[in-house]
Design a protein that fits this description.
Blueprint lengths: L13 E2 L2 H5 L1 E2 L15 E4 L3 E4 L9 H28 L9 H26 L11 E4 L4 E5 L5 E5 L4 E7 L2 E9 L5 E12 L19 H14 L21 H9 L7 H23 L7 H5 L11 E3 L5 E3 L5
Helix pairs in contact: 2-3, 2-6, 5-6
């Protein structure tokens, strides 16, 4: 799991690092690997491709974590602080100095309050926020539109984004850096939808091939080919469209999305199922308390889908890909 950019901000107002340059991905360079949508597509057509944020797959973890930590900390700290304060007030008999008990109880209460504040801050990263933070890649006007975590919608030219591979915790993702006019200073950063392990940062020097378990760059290649070559060779690769553009995720869909983080169903999925059930509780709270993001009218206006577009797909209630007849 990698929540960099959601819990903690990406480092901004900084120059591009040596790692940024080392792992740069160029929009016009075709990688020798099969493109993969990685269960991230919401809609795709000849005008735009819309995908989810990189935190969507593990959504629910920070909510479940903050609530669990809140309960674990509240019980012992609350009992100690409460008992000390009640003894200081004389409501419970004690031989200890009441002044010291008052200071001790107040100290515990302050620490408890700070922990509550921290847990609430983490809780609000997913809950009472947005159900997801979509990204739109418009190949007609070559623009990228993306929701920031504060709900603000940003836009940048596809050709001007500095794409590179960045690491958060032990996982990697493709990051898009929005640069200042000097083409060096990072003003903003967004991530593509997939996070994962990368076992080899460079292709095999003998074959030019990438590691078969590297899915970070195949997802980049999916986005890159859409923008540079169009949807015609990609539409058949999309087997599932997330039905969340105008509705909230169902309980069943959320559970299956969490399970799919284990890859193919097997022993690992069974062993991880208690964790996913715990996360599912957090995911439901996050989804039900959050609002569905809505694109500004001016962005929808430039993302209109032509009638009869043969490559326009969206998800039905189950997520099966169906023709999309909506405009925008």
């Amino acid at each position: 799991m990698d929540f960099s950019g959601l819990v903690g901000k990406f480092p901004l107002n900084r120059p591009l690092s040596s790692e940024d340059y080392t792992y740069q991905l160029k929009q016009t360079t075709r990688l020798d690997m099969e493109p993969h949508d990685m269960l991230a597509v919401i809609k795709m057509n000849s005008t735009f491709l819309e995908s989810v944020d990189k935190w969507f797959g593990f959504r629910g973890f920070t909510t479940a974590f903050s609530l669990t930590a809140f309960l674990i900390v509240t019980v012992p700290f609350g009992l100690v602080a409460g008992e000390s304060l009640l003894q200081a007030l004389g409501w419970i008999d004690t031989d200890q100095d009441r002044g010291e008990l008052a200071v001790f109880g107040a100290g515990f209460a302050i620490v408890l309050g700070l922990i509550w504040w921290a847990m609430f801050a983490i809780f609000k990263k997913e809950s009472f926020a947005y159900t997801h933070y979509p990204i739109r890649f418009n190949r007609q006007n070559r623009m990228v539109y993306y929701f920031r975590v504060d709900g603000e919608v940003a836009s940048v030219s596809w050709d001007d984004v500095f794409f590179t591979i960045g690491q958060g915790s032990n996982l990697w993702s493709v990051r898009g850096h929005v640069l200042a006019d000097d083409k060096v200073t990072v003003l903003d950063t967004f991530s593509l939808s997939h996070i994962g392990m990368i076992y080899s940062h460079e292709p095999d020097p003998d074959t030019g091939k990438f590691h078969p378990e590297d899915y970070v760059r195949p997802h980049w290649e999916f986005i890159r080919r859409y923008m540079e070559e169009g949807p015609q060779d990609l539409v058949q690769r999309v087997r599932f469209c997330l039905p969340i553009s105008d509705r909230k995720e169902t309980l069943k869909a959320g559970f299956w999305r969490l399970l799919l983080n284990s890859g193919e169903m097997g022993v690992t999925t069974i062993l991880m199922s208690p964790l996913y059930l715990w996360m599912l509780i957090g995911r439901r709270i996050a989804v039900m308390t959050s609002k569905i993001p809505q694109w500004p009218a001016k962005i929808d206006a430039v993302c209109r889908v032509e009638p009869g577009d043969p490559f326009a797909i969206t998800g039905d209630n189950r997520g099966d890909c169906i023709p999309d007849t909506a405009h925008g």
